[in-house]
Amino acid sequence: MKRYDREFKKQTVEMIQEEGKSVAQVARELGISNITLYYWVRQYKQDRKEAFPGSGNLKPSDREYQELQKRIRDLEEENAILKKATHFFTKDRK
User: pTM for this structure?
Assistant: First the structure.
């Protein structure tokens, strides 16, 4: 599977949007499938600044969400430990 960098994708989408070329025409010129180009256009329309983050990279908003989810899991685990410790220490007092 061929990989394309962010700049190439951006230029390709801009060629479609700004130059008025059709997706099919650009696909033929570049040897890329129509489906791939439609996907790139959709990504670009959704978020120009953060479109095409790259392999293994996340958009800043997705990264923040992932970090918050991890923080929630960590806090839930800490809470469970504290509940067990509280139960353990209060059991001995009875």
Answer: 0.53
